[in-house]
Amino acid sequence: MITVSDLNQSFGKKLVLESINIEINKHEICALVGRNGAGKSTFINSLLGLLPVKQGCITINGVHVTKKNQDWKKAIAYLPEKFMLYPMLTGLENITFFAEAVGKTVDHDTIESVLKSVSLWEDRTVQVKKYSKGMLQRLGLAITLYQDSSILILDEPTSGIDPMGRKEILEVLKSLHDKTILLSSHHLDEIKQVCTHVAYLNNGKMEKYTVEDFLQTHNLGGIES
């Protein structure tokens, strides 16, 4: 699903990512782990085509990530840490707006389905400015799920959320059996609950492990339990 080969990324003379080689396979949920400043955002932005690949190759579903060929974008959906929503609009109006932005027609049945999947259907007529942080994150996830992409990239989806809100987000993620997910996280407990693998970024290098192997072989300093 995602293949990265010999990826190097640098800013000026600083090499941020060095010879990254990793595959994230179909239906895996892979945590992207590393200390602050390790290059996680650089890696994600490279996957999304927001940073041009200076050296190496990235393919999404077998399609090279380039500006010339945009077909790879159809397979991927991204949820940033802070999803920009319209506070004066309701939850339903927000997701309808984004649905109109990605397609000629709006599938109202799918909107209902994804809002129910994140437990927001009952709050669909409430203005977003009245939503809690957890509700905002769940609405962002619903908007991402509406695209029905096979690959999801989620950047700290539970950041700043209270324990109940985190639990709700994790329950949704655990239900997405037909998706391939790359999940940036600092929380060891959610990695253990949700993920199948870990992509560990350290000193510009990346290694992939099963969650069990990662927990057994690495010092977890900087990762919250």
Layout of helices and strands:
Layout: E1 2-11, E2 14-24, E3 29-33, H1 40-47, E4 55-60, E5 63-64, E6 76-79, H2 91-102, H3 108-117, H4 133-146, E7 151-155, H5 163-174, E8 180-184, H6 188-194, E9 197-202, E10 205-210, H7 211-217
Parallel strand pairs: 3-8, 3-9, 6-7, 7-8
Antiparallel strand pairs: 1-2, 1-4, 4-5, 9-10
Question: What's the short story on this structure?
Answer:
With 225 residues, the protein is of the alpha/beta class. It is built from seven helices and ten strands. The chain is globular and about 50 Å long.
Keywords:
four-stranded antiparallel β-sheet, 225 residues, alpha/beta, single chain
State the end-to-end CA separation: 30 Å
Coarse shape: globular
The poorly predicted ranges are: none
Alpha-beta content class: alpha/beta
Number of helices: 7
CA radius of gyration: 18 Å
Range of strand content: 25-35%
H-E order: EEEHEEEHHHEHEHEEH
How many runs of DSSP E, i.e. beta strands? Answer: 10
Please give the largest β-sheet: 6 strands, mixed
Mean pLDDT value: 90
Strand order of the largest sheet: 6-7-8-3-9-10
> How much helicity do the residues have?
25-40%
